[in-house]
Predict the structure.
Amino acid sequence: MHFKYQQWSERFANNQGKSPFDALWDTFQELLTIASGDVSQSLKWLSELDNEYGLTDDFDDYGVGDFIDELKERGYIEQDNEQQAYVITRKTERSLRQRSLEQIFKNLEKGSAGGHQTDHTGKGLERQPETRRWHQGDDISNIDSVGTMMNMLKHSNIDQMRLQEDDIRVHDTDHYTSVATVLLIDLSHSMILYGEDRITPAKKTAMALSELILNNYAKDSLDIVAFGNEAWKVDIQDLPYLKVGPYHTNTQQALEVARHTLHKRKFANKQIFMITDGKPSCIIENGKMYKNSFGLDRKIVNRVLDEAVKCRRDDIDITTFMIARDPYLQDFVREMTEANKGRAYFASLDNLGGYIFEDYIRNRKRRVK
């Protein structure tokens, strides 16, 4: 019997039970998210990490080149003849969404996930402990057998059991309602300024939320709108490729596009989630951009507040996730939140996803119209 000894390392411990491919695959997906889906850049970074930290040192005869070959064989990347470069496939896009979902759920407290509950009871999905009299049309699967039996025994004897209609008790159930959500993502230049990557957590949150809704809340809808100098809709499969541009922040148009999008959704409940780190700094006026990056321009701010009021009149709640700590910016968010009667969270990058998921899943303040 022969034993192979090698130096212990935390990296080796973490790779135990994983194939060489799986050990590199997680790191590669993180790099892809940061590089906005750029395969060449991600592989370059992976090679540099391998050279500096020996990512493949624990693997026998397996290097980054073998990993690339396996990526192709498994259908995660393919050659794009037009770009003359490797690109990720739909399979990889889906994997990135699933990975983001898993990462965020790991940070949520156990048992925090739930459905879209309302304050109304009746025929629904989740049984409640409270009971009531049975009415014609009630689902018999919700009958309270113990309560029904006790009522029947009140007017029965050992020789004859008499079940009357009034004896039957059924459990109440919570109503659940579909929700239409628009997620706004700020792509202004400040999302990568000050040595802090703010866009990657925002993208991960968007990918995770879209995967959650696709898998668990098929009756809900999610639209995604990116905004900089202007606002534009983004398809779910395009999320990994989002990049920050040399943009100002057109918060007013972002809210306007979201409001118009929600008008087309025939749902009882409608909401806007906005991820931003900066102040509104531009608007479109008479077909031209009016901008002011210095301080809070009341002309721009008032247009944003007007849009927030329009959303409130249309029963659209705005929840703002502010990832900046500047007091005057937080004051602006509070002013906008008051105008809409919505909610605001001053979230760090580490807990951004958790905040959004808990707010979405709990859906505490929704109402059926």
About this structure: The CA atoms of residues 228 and 249 lie 5 Å apart.
